[in-house]
Every structure is written in structure tokens, then in C-alpha cells.
Amino acid sequence: MSETATVTYPEYLRLPELLSLQSPLADGVDDELLFITVHQVQELWFGQLLRDLSDARDRMLEGDPRAARARLVRSVSVTRALIAAIHPLRAMPPREFHAFRGVLGSSSGQQSAQYVEIAGLCGADWVRGEYGRRAVAGLAPGERERLHRRLAEPTLWEGFVALLAKAGFAVGTREERWEAYARLGAGPLDGDPAEFAELAELAEALVDHDEVWTEWRACHALLVERQIGGRPGTGGSSGTAHLRASVYRRFYPELWEARDAGFAEAPARCPMG
């Protein structure tokens, strides 16, 4: 009998260690455990997303749009699980949250290194701006180093643009890329390589991925407003105002801007001129 045949369910999942990490700080406040559980679950799913999105990026760079799309589709499902995992906190009355809010100290969701990593991996430009600088400042040295390494890697967006270039599209300017999106959005034409259809499906998968993150941020913003109204958040954040402003941040803004520019109505054309 192999050694793994004797591994039990709690041993495999390391349940004693996992459950020992749920350690409320406030005395006699039952809902703090729910708050901890929800946020730990978020971070576990963030870790899975980083693996799947990194793989999607790598598949793009290897020239495999079909495999990249499969990973993005799963990432959308995982992000929907993230949204569902927030919902139990809606059942927490504000008075219960405020009963333990003081023990949170300077901690803030802005200090989630994995969330910033996800945005950076996708290619979000706002991660490299003021938001990113504030987030990095609140991280431990090890997390800061990991985030800097992540931000030095190729992004999903760069992987997608590389696929467009490999298929023969001009990608040097935003307008040229818009033409590529319009051509893909026009649907298959006689003589098109099968790769074009796969690229079109991948572009829509990127939009799906961006859209579901908008839903996640909106859900988060509403939850915080429900708990604290317009008051400042923990860790020096502006609370609801900051979260409201972040709802419509895009990971892949060009795919949305192209629609504003007449993406759906643009005439079909050959990418090679």
C-alpha cells in the first residue's frame, strides 16, 4: 500500500492548521469569525486566480488562444465564486461589524497584495499609478518584493496583443488595434484562418473577465456602504468613496473603448492591408 493511501481528509486539506488560522481578536463578538472567514476565502480564490491567469498569459505568449480562453473562462467562474462568497456579510447588521471594527487597526483591503498582483498581471495601468504606490507602501517587505516581480512580468494584455501580431494584424497604435478588434468582431469571412475565430472568442473572454471584476468591485463597494455609510475606511482609506471610484476601472480598456469608436459597425477588412 502506498503512503498516500493512508492520507485522511483532514490531513490532505491540513484542516487543523487551516481552522487554527481563524482567530478573532474581539471578545464575545460572534460575527468577527464570519468576517475573517469571508476574507480568507477571498484570498484563497485570489491565489487560484493568479495561477489560472498566469497560465492564460503563458498560453497566449506560446501562441495558443484556445487554451488561454479556457483558463479565462474558468477565471470568470472563480470570480463569480468570489462574489458569492461576499454575500454572507450582507446578513451582518452594521452594529455587529462596529462591535469588532476597532480591532482591525490599520488593516485595509487595499493591503491585499494578491488583488494588486491580479490587476498588475492583467495589465491594469492604474496599478502603476497612485493606487499602486499606496498599495505597495502598505505591504510587508516580502509581499512588496513579490509584487515588484509580478509587475515586471509580461501581462495578459501583452499576450493578447502578441497573438494579434502573430495573426498578421498591425498593433503598433491604439487605432490599429481597434481595427483588429473590429475585424474580429465582424464575424468569420470566406478565407479567414480558423485562428481568427479563436482570437474573437478570446477577445470576448477578456471582456467577460473584465466585466465580472466590475461586478465584484460593485458588490464590495455596496457592502462597505451598507456597513459604514460614507465614513472613512480602515487603514486611512476614504472608504466608500474610494470603492465607488474604483468600480469601473478596466483591466482591458481598449476592448471597451473600441466599442465607443464604432467597434460593431466598423467595416470588415483584411488585416494585411
TrEMBL record:
One Pfam family from the record: Trp_dioxygenase
Origin species: Streptomyces polychromogenes
InterPro entries: Trp/Indoleamine_2_3_dOase-like, Trp_2_3_dOase
Name listed for the protein in its UniProt record: Tryptophan 2,3-dioxygenase family protein
Taxonomic superkingdom: Bacteria
